[in-house]
Amino acid sequence: MSPLGTKLLIIGKMALIIVMLLITHTMSAQTGTLPVMHIETQGHQPVTSKTQYIPGTYYIIDDQNPDNNVGSEAEPMDLEIRGRGNSSWKADKKPYKIKLAEKTKLLGMKKHRHWALLKFYEPTVAGMQLGNVMGMDWTPSTKPLEVVLNGDYIGLYLLTETNRIGKNRLDIYEQPNWNHDMYSIPYGWLVEVDNYADPNQIRIPENDKWTLRITYHSPDSLSRSQEEWLTDEFTAINTAIYEEDKIHSTWEQQIDVDAMARYFIIQEVLDNSDGFHGSFFLHKDWTDSARWVAGPLWDLACNQRLKTDYTFRMKTSYGFIPHWIGELIKDEDFCRAVRSAWSEFYPHEVQSWMDYIDEHILLCGLAYEQDKARWHYTSQETLQDRTNRLKTSLLANIEWFNEHLPVGMTASINDINADNKKVVKVEYLNLAGMRNSQPWDGVNLKVTTYDDGSTSTSKIVVTH
After folding, report:
1. How many whole angstroms separate alpha carbon 309 and alpha carbon 268?
2. In the 8-state DSSP scheme, what is residue 354?
3. What angle, 0 to 180 degrees and rounded to 10, lies between the N-to-C axes of helices 365-374 and 3-28?
4. H/E run at residue 144
């Protein structure tokens, strides 16, 4: 080969190398359209454990809003990182739990040390906002960002507030670990009806088919007194929920019926089979009439299928256990609370929720494409395509639910439309059958007589 030919061959090879480097960089580098979190573990150790934290540092750069910057490459901040999740941990792209050395305000969210890096998932963004719209006590905030771990671009994530008791999270009284004080033991709990075995767990038979697993998150180390109380508490709740006589059942003395109704609506609108199966959180504050309250939300999904029944009755590709909801939906008071909460949402909150989904998901379009390239996803769907498909499913679920609002086991159409008739008499019966014009303390049967001679019976719980 002539010297000129050799020179051209060398130039050609160099050009090819440059092109390949550019392609590799394009497919594995952050877009900068979102905040970027850089994490370096000590000694660049890989994160392989879900239980052992690895020390490291981090900094966040937000080219679009520099006010969100935290630390810098020259002066990073300290953290610890470990894996998290169950089935999600088995995927190539891993979710992580991070614990900051100092409470820090991240991306406009309130100061805290504990955060999660979750796989970017559109139903999570939509569902958490639905929790806010539906008026849940507290719902974790999420913010999209890109992540670089030990110099490796690992794609698009959701930086998410974790479910914890605290001033800037679920702001309720927090019971201490190893508590023996029987006066305070019934208050300050955060637990999860779980679908996985966990060391921090009590188990009771729910019915003759399956077991109820209650994972205790706070407190997370129980004295014998706490463990016995928690077991007795959920045994009693479960017994009340499964009482055949729904009119005389007393579960509403222990569980907030309105919050449970709102939780149910969220799972139905999302068509989230896991809603009453796992990641089903309950909390209890210290107040005069403290009851267990459904929430906070976690681990949300949307099946995006043709909805033909309530979600807990529809089949899934995996075996799942719909804890409690099959019994709750038979109770007229629960169904009445569902209809009341639904009237606050439908139809006037629907469009603003759809607008929120567009606004907070579509800004991630370029980062989503980079994420697909990094993890070799073959789907040709754009984020716009996925968002449109999600919204179509959600709107269809909303319309189905609106046409199939639950009424309970013995309710009639007169019960639902009672407000259109004139009330001529109201009486209250306690569990002993005594009548009064004013409600008794505890569980009451409220008997309402209307001007057309019809009556309706409902259950109310009064606490003083």
Report:
1. 10
2. H
3. 120
4. strand 142-149
Looking at residue 320, its pLDDT comes to 86
Question: φ, ψ for residue 446 (rounded to 5)?
Answer: -95, 115
Contact 448, 433 (CB under 8 A): no
Span 4-9, average pLDDT: 50
Distances (CA, A) of 339 to 36, 273, 345, 348, 403: 43, 21, 10, 15, 11
Which pair of tokens denotes residue 318? 């995996």
Residue-wise pLDDT for 172-225, tens only, equals 999 999 999 999 999 999 999 999 999 999 999 999 999 999 999 999 999 999
DSSP string, 1-43: --HHHHHHHHHHHHHHHHHHHHHHHHHHS--SSS-EEEEEEGG
Sort strands 293-294 and 201-205 into parallel, antiparallel or unpaired. unpaired
* Unique residue bearing structure tokens 């395509």: 385
pLDDT at 25 over 50: no
Distance CA 190, CA 183 (A): 18
Residue among 280, 180, 164 at smallest CA distance from 229: 180
Q: Which one, of 14, 12, 65, lies nearest residue 35 by Cα?
A: 65
User: Which amino acid is present at 261?
Assistant: A
Lowest mean pLDDT of 65-74, 135-144, 293-302, 437-446, name the range.
Answer: 437-446
Q: Which helix (H) or strand (E) holds 351?
A: helix 350-361
Main-chain dihedrals φ then ψ at residue 323, nearest 5 degrees: -65, 130
- Closest-CA residue to 28 (of 373, 343, 265): 373
**Res 411 pLDDT > 60:** no
18: tokens are: 């440059």
119-165: pLDDT as tens digits? 999 999 999 999 999 999 999 999 999 999 999 999 999 999 999 99
Question: Environment class of residue 15 by beta-carbon count within 10 Å: exposed (0-12), middle (13-18) or buried (19+)?
Answer: exposed
Query: Which sign, positive or negative, has the C-alpha torsion 103, 105, 109, 115?
Result: negative
216 strand-pairing partners: 191
